[in-house]
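FIELD: query
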Amino acid sequence: MNPLLALNQRDQFVWLDHISRSLITGGVLHRLIEQDSLGGVTSNPTIFDKAIAGSTDYDSELRRLLDAERNIGDRALVERLIVDDIQLAADVLRPVYDHSDGANGFVSLEVSPDSAHDTGATVAEARHLWQVVARPNVMIKVPATQAGVRAVEMLTADGINVNITLMFSLEHYEAVAQAYLRGIQRHPEPHRVTSVASVFVSRLDGVADRLLEKIGSPAALSLRGKIAIANAKRIYRRFRELFDAEPFTTLKRGGARVQRPLWASTGTKNASYSDVLYIEALIGPETITTIPPATLDAFRNHGRVRTTLGTGQEEVDAILATAAAVGLDVHAITEQLQADAIRAFATSFDQLVATVGEKRRQMLTTAS
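FIELD: result
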């Protein structure tokens, strides 16, 4: 069996961590849905910058927008191009959404990184994007900063599907899950709201491995490639504690949906590790894994499927205890990773605006 299909049998669904106009219009997205049972698509400013800067696929639409409104701002142009991609992808995925009764078939669109530390701005932009995209199977991505967590509760209460992103730690997860639980209690029709909590995985090993090598002791070196998976498994354990008990069981009887963990940053960055390490190590029920295209192909080719979440809890605790004992401050690392990721996405968004601005100037110059 196709390993990607085998994941579905274990109640884990695969979303693609990539979007582009050619992916949608060239039939690739439809083919991934038909052949691999793809359940969704995630996007971010970096992905969009690569898609728009790296092709001419958006040029005809950009010309059309400029012909219609010559003085439109660069940021407004960016929003128009992105929203069109999101709408097109959502329409392709709509049968998945309908067939799953609203559990899958989503496309995620991120609020501007400029709003990451401003609750009011995040809520306002999320509401705006929700209305502009106007598709039931869109998720608005909100970062798991303190301001973002406050926004999650408000947006969930509004009935907006939220993908809470840039989570790196158990503390981030706890705050996000509690915000969702508070928000879903305030919505009169909770079954209409779907949310995921995106935990970034491989980036943690990228930093932790370097620090463990710097410590250099046998105990420290034995932890390389293990911290991120142990951290994610600890988060999954807390997920089960929260969503298998009160108050959620009462909310579930009223139609509320589980806020599933979504494993992000699943591409292997260390060439000495298996290229499907972070997929195989985090397989379990009521989860999603979002996978970049190269890793998706690798897992389809040689991925092994067995349930690996909810098992080996003593080993998880031992790994994290040993990490603390050798002087690895996982909490400090995860806080820094979140701050760095927000800055990186802000840089990508600024680059995206600059890319579209340059294309615009070239088109206007040629036209004149």
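FIELD: remark
The beta strands are 12-16, 40-41, 106-110, 138-143, 162-167, 195-200, 260-264, 287-291.
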